[in-house]
Design a protein that fits this description.
single chain; mainly alpha; 19 helices; 0% strand; globular
Amino acid sequence: MNTWSGLATWVSGALSLAIPGGYLLAIAMLVLMLPLCSWWVTRLWDHALPMLPAVVLALFAVCWLVMADWHGDIANAFRLVWPAMAMAPCLLALLMFPPSLAWLWSGLSVGGIYCGVSSVVQRALLGLTRASGPDPLHPILFGNFSLLLAFFCLAGLGWAWCQMRRIRWMVTLMAGALGGLIASALSGTRGGWVIMPILLVMLWLIHGRQLPRRLTIRLAVGAMVMAVMAVWVPETGVKARIIMGLEHASRYLQGEQGVATGARLEIWRGALLLIAERPLHGWGDQEYQEGLKRLGEEGRIDPAVVNYWHAHSDLLDAWVRRGVAGLLVLLMLYALPIVLFWKGLGDRNPSRRALAGCGVLLGVGLFGFGLSYSFMVYPVSIALYSVWLCILWALYLAPSR
């Protein structure tokens, strides 16, 4: 059964961004292992503390369901958060049958390589303006998750350096990282590249005391060169979108308020106006749209804002829809991997340090991405966040258990 859980782990990295519904395949494979864990009740205490991530994910889901039921939107909320509720059997299966780390790193590498190749094909051969993945992975989701795959692969270099087949694993992970970076650049996303310096600092914390100094410096220089190339090469479109965003923001702040000059800023302003009216219990899905429409009719915001169905910010969207309780549990969810894995950044075991690095990158990355776009309004985002968190946690605990 360790092989089956290993295959599910591989699928979570290799196929989540590659095939329609791929992000659900790993969850389904792990849930199917539940009958084999039927005896877990007799050993509940053995798994109580390791199951903490599943408990927090369930708390997040229940809180959002309760707030959605308050507004009569529970059906929509359930379609959104059910992957988080399914993590208890998934994490239990992973704890009982921990897979080899090779499944994780090979899956992440294959996923990154596929994203890079797919993006080049879409831009160079199909003539698309921005690379994307299978529905619902539009360019922003696809680009930012590809960037996260790239940094996962870079975090795994410390593990690869200590393997017998060192060169093979280093090349494989570097290829996955390059593919993820290319996919992110060709998707034209800006939000992910804004937090790039923070992600690079995280990598330094992971590798700074482990890899040889010369190799660390070369990797840092290489990462900066690739980032600069992604921004300045016209074919990627990143530079043009950054310049356009800065220009629109400047004009917006100078008084040209409206979607044409500052779509996100106008959307955020509308969300803040609604939050000021109902700061405690929020508006729900339907009333949020109606509230924006009312503000547009009153001339307080650009009426075109009504065409945007979420607040383009995870924090604002959670607050305006689910109230202050929804905001707090979302912040708790983002903080969870940082709390769980931060101590592991200084672990002497290179495998645990690499896994801890991925865990911290997951929390920091999704929080940073969500500052300028709403990720947690898509089931794919909650599913990927949940299953990656549980896989990393189970593997992180495996040596000590």
